[in-house]
Amino acid sequence: MSDTKDMTGGCMCGAVRFVASGAPFDVTHCHCHSCRKHNGAAVVTLAGYKASDVAFSGTERKFYESSPGVKRAFCGDCGAPLTWEGDGGELGAIIEFHISTLDHPEDLKPTAHAFEVERLPWMEVADDLPRYEGFPGVGTPLRHGPVDT
Ligand SMILES: [Zn+2]
Ligand SMILES: [Zn+2]
Description:
By secondary structure, the chain is mainly β. About 5% of the residues lie in helices and about 40% in strands.
């Protein structure tokens, strides 16, 4: 695992490209309904960067405002969902990349689950990472690891 090198990535067709500098401030599995809807996926893994550490190139990305102050970007050519973009509090403006937009997502490791309470019941992951009710790192994790059955 290398978490300090710059990460490159882009959409499926390559029209939108980006470079994210340094290590992400978090790498999180998000189980929220909005991420699922935007991606058409059962769970979405996100790598978060300060917006000031990200440079885009190529075609301008398009946005859908999924809630006030939150923009979700996608490629207008191939339709690939790209990011969650919004206010990161003390971090300022942040950009969370869907990890599969990265050229080498295997170089980053998830550190938490977010919005555990919205997780699809059959989408279980056998890891011991902290699982938060909402945003990662906010409050006490509901638990670590899978639900006991
Ligand atoms: Zn594209
Ligand atoms: Zn989410």
